[in-house]
Specification:
The chain is mainly beta and 105 residues long. Helix content is 0%, strand content 40%. The protein is built from no helices and ten strands. Strands 2-3-4-8 form a four-stranded antiparallel beta sheet, with no helix packed on it. Strand 9 and strand 10 (96-99) form a beta hairpin.
Length: 105
């Protein structure tokens, strides 16, 4: 599993998603509840950027239709989305946030 630098911890405000692209994959990086998560940035219901939505209770909400996705599993909490979005392993090295987009969970 190879990890790529996504950003620094200092670039992540609590509960404010940051969009990055890693090897052509759009990823939303989220710092919340003392952890950092990486989830595919595209809603499984519509081609909409999740990083433009709000974060609450370890969930990210799609701003267009209101589906929320668990940052740990990618599973939607309700309609209209029915399919999960990929989540990616994250590790922190010093101030660097590293993400592996090669292996989806």
């Amino acid at each position: 599993m190879s990890f790529l630098r996504a950003c620094s911890l200092g670039e992540l405000a609590e509960d404010e998603p940051k969009r990055v692209e890693l090897n052509g994959v759009p990823v939303a990086i989220v710092r919340t509840e003392g952890e950092v998560f990486a989830i595919n940035d595209i809603c499984s219901h519509a081609n909409v950027s999740l990083s433009e939505g709000e974060v609450e209770d370890c969930m990210i909400e799609c701003w267009l239709h209101g589906s929320s996705f668990d940052l740990r599993s990618g599973k939607p909490s309700g309609l209209p989305a029915t399919k999960p979005v990929p989540v990616y392993p994250v590790k922190i090295e010093g101030d660097d946030v590293l993400v592996s987009v090669n292996q989806e969970s």
